[in-house]
Amino acid sequence: MNPVFQYRGGMLxxxxxxxxxxxxxxxxxxxxxxxxxxxxxxxxxAEGLAGIPHHICYAVKANGNLGVLRHLATxxxxxxxxxxxxxxxxxxxxxxxxxxxxxxxxxxxxxxxxALEQGIHSFNCESEGEIALISAxxxxxxxxxxxxIRVNPDVDASTHPYISTGLKxxxxxxxxxxxAAVYETAAALPGLSVQGVSxxxxxxxxxxxxxxxxxxxxxxxxxxxRANGINITDLDLGGGLGVPYQPHESAPDVPGFxxxxxxxISGRNLTLFLEPGRSLVASSGALLSRVLYRKQSxxxxxxxxxxxxxxxxxxxxxxxxxxxLPLRESKLGTVVADVVGPVCESSxxxxxxxxxxxxxxxxxxxxxxxGAYGFAMASNYNARxxxxxxxxxxxxxxxxxxxxxxxxxxRGEQNEQNGTA
Length: 421
Ligand code: LLP
Fold this sequence. Notes:
Elements: E1 5-8, E2 11-14, E3 17-18, H1 19-26, E4 30-34, H2 35-48, E5 54-59, H3 66-75, E6 78-81, H4 84-92, E7 100-102, H5 109-118, E8 122-125, H6 128-140, E9 145-152, E10 174-175, H7 179-187, E11 192-198, H8 209-227, E12 234-236, H9 254-265, E13 271-274, H10 278-281, E14 285-297, E15 300-305, H11 314-318, E16 324-326, E17 334-340, E18 349-357, E19 364-368, E20 388-393, E21 396-401, H12 406-410
């Protein structure tokens, strides 16, 4: 089991905090994150890359809570953003804009201007139209925009089709076979410093071999570009390393992967950028929930809990597996059940046909490995209030986001009786 979540005396702990007491005081559903777990995951990257020029740019999309961002900023992280909103979050959390890379296939004019004004490190560009826009806006603002071009290296990341991105048929990046010409065009545009090559081939990769394969292809491209007079200084390999969600899965060998990367780029005069999201935060998060009801339909058992697809959509969207653990070990054995939420959708489940603790109404459970793409993908569907979030550090914990209120639900809406406002 994950070292930051452990049973002690029959009770589930996060670090030195007993989660039943958090659930009782904070209410449910509630996300809990471990500061130590995030720190350990970050330090694994930082130590693995020590000695070479690098930036670890945490992918904010995985978990953009200000408490999490501030924790990572304090550890020295940079950030990978995909929207102006994520840049705003990073700045609010004290992140350094000079360590920010801006990814994404559809940056708007307003977002590019905001990023230029804030002085981010660079843009990972995905199309010729985007490069032309950044050039024009940088010129107008009298700035030089550093850019990398996101290359599609055409390697198969062998992950879930919804989160694989590195094949020719995907919308991401520019085909490696065609990108040299795009570099030539970009290098001739004003307002740009064309200095990087980037890629991101997919997510939840338990085997890092495809990333190393992509790295090799990108290094070949860098040689070609440099021979053509384009001075590439940055290599960005994106994120993508996975975490074990199921007991039989094992984590990728992060130190081994980083050692291999270091070997590949040593002596090449490059700064390495990585954009890990999930692998920094997923295993450090759990979603706490209370059992509302039990019911049986024929042979089928349902455990109805107060968390749903609005807090954790991954099971519905990707058939993702999250372990379901009781906060107090059950004396009633186990049951094979569907663990479902209150939302009016058949796809509203946290687990189906799963052998879980035989928990009863009032008992608390945790969905594990929810630190990434959990709260970040939460919604207000069915007018549900988004849950609170808590950060544990040692024996203490603090709320880092309050539960939403009914007033939050209608903020920004017009409510006049006659006509519009
Ligand atoms: N960089 C870029 C350009 C990305 O598109 C992503 C993730 C990352 C970095 C971070 O990847 P990570 O290290 O977290 O694998 N919602 C899905 C995951 C979508 C990932 C999208 N891109 C899920 O819940 O599994």
